[in-house]
Amino acid sequence: MQKLTMGFLVMWATIISMSWVYAAPDLEVNTPAISAIKNSMQARHNQLAPHYASGAIGLTKDGLIAVRDTTAVPLKDRQGINALVAAENADRNALYKEIAAGNGHPEWRGDIQGTFAGRWIDKAQGGWYYQNDAGWMKK
Amino acid sequence: MNKKITKITGLFVVVAVLSACVTINIYFPAAAAEKAADKIIDEVWQLKEGAQISVEKPSEAPATKPADVPAK
After folding, report:
1. Residues 74..93 of A with a Cβ closer than 8 Å to B: which?
2. Rounded to whole angstroms, how far apart are CA atoms A115 and A36?
3. Is residue B26 within 8 angstroms of chain A, CB to CB?
4. How many interchain CB pairs under 8 A, A with B?
């Protein structure tokens, strides 16, 4: 009986420690693919930042960005804005996909995108525009 | 009596292990994802000192602080 109890305790401890290890694993975000996308986005941010500040571009509720109001943008720059937004969104979509795939769970893509959507908006500077269910809001 | 306990214990352990496996594989780790998102956003938006990947050109160095972006 004592042996049995001992065996049970050992097994239980093993299970507990296993779930301890797996309970809060960090997501892998340092793969070469993710780093490349990150660098590309960081380099583009200097061009995007003035447009966030002017309200020409806003953060969408699905973790991407969109052209919101180009009236503040000089006519000659408007084409460039669309290209910037398209390139940024392509990078963001690739980023979400790569994080999911890099962690062995491609099906997490939507959840990762949803998580990012909230965090982009939380970290946005005051005055930037973001989207919620009611439409565009100014932070 | 002892046999019965062994059986129940064994069953319990099997159920516990199986449910642990299911938990590990199905659920999306929301907290870990937030942490990962924060790290990446800080780097992309250069929100923290030391998080920069140094892709800036030297000529842009004086204007890289996000707080300095002019609010038109």
Report:
1. none
2. 21
3. no
4. 100
Q: What are phi and psi of A52, to 5 degrees?
A: -65, -45
Q: How many CB atoms sit inside 10 A of residue A78's CB?
A: 13
In chain A, the largest separation of any two C-alpha atoms, in whole Å, equals 85
Inter-chain residue contact B45 with A45, CB threshold 8 Å: yes
**Interface membership of B36 toward A (CB under 8 Å):** yes
User: Tens of pLDDT along chain A (139 residues)?
Assistant: 677 777 777 677 666 666 555 555 789 999 999 999 999 999 999 999 999 999 999 999 999 999 999 887 888 888 899 999 999 999 999 999 999 999 999 999 999 999 999 999 999 999 999 999 999 999 9
**Residue ranges covered by each domain of chain B:** 2-65
| ipTM higher than the 0.85 cut | no
How far apart CA B2 and CA A125 sit, in angstroms, is 66
